Please model this.
Amino acid sequence: MFGFLVRRLLSALPVLFVVSLVSFVIIAIVPGDVTAEIAGSDSTEAQRAEIRERLGLDQPMLTQAVHWYGRLLQGDLGESYLLNKTVAEAVLERLPVTLSLAGIALVLAVVMGVLLGILAAIKHDSWLDQGAMSVALFGLSIPDFWFGLILISVFAVGLGWLPTGGYVPASESVIGWMRSMTLPALALAITQMGVVARMTRSSMLDVLGQDYIRTARAKGMRRRTVIFKHALRNALVPIVTVVGVMTGVLLGGAVVIESVFSLPGVGRLIIGAIQRRDYPIIQGGLLITAATFVFVNILVDLVYGWLDPRVRDGR
Model:
């Protein structure tokens, strides 16, 4: 297992390098000037030139890249041009919001999706099967931001049960934190719930048709034991793979949901940095988000290897 983990960590390094390189090149070629944001709209050209020189923006792109990668190798992501704090501080203080939103949405999507998929598989070709797949299709068809607006209209504006937006840290109030995260997490989870439900149904139907499942039933084993102990574990292998991909989708989708619900997460930080040309925040935010996605996928690979030893052994 240790060798398997080392191989996965080494394979992640080129991914992070490509992400950092692409983000650096895109920012360098996109037109715009952060000096106008720093010095103000009524600043002179001489003042803006002085700021460019101080920030190193007047140097060639290759020189800027060498300096940025040199600091990155020392663990320094740089300092925000506009927030008066380091990139690591700006991103890390908002990362818990995004991770908690994506994490809760992932749990909701997996739990609801797996339960719907199991129900559809064991009640194959019944009205329960059709109903479960209709719910999954609804989740796949509806945009998450639109579903979020519906949730706000019904549960916040109409019924008044939950807040329309904003964020309450768990350190201040656990109940308040749960109330502030419920609607955003539901909105973010709905699409991925449909994916998991359809994948679980297909995988369970395939496993339930295997000879060892028929043998277990012929021996008189209880139905619940056959489904949850023997069938579900083998059916989880492709589902775990989907969960790894889902993590990236949820982290990306959190950008929109954070805007809809006014959550102070990394997504809103990066959008604000793009609008104001705060390049270090954009580069650092993208790199940390990509590193989080890679780390989660390594964990998924470890679970995948635990479920299927042939993957771990490279067979």
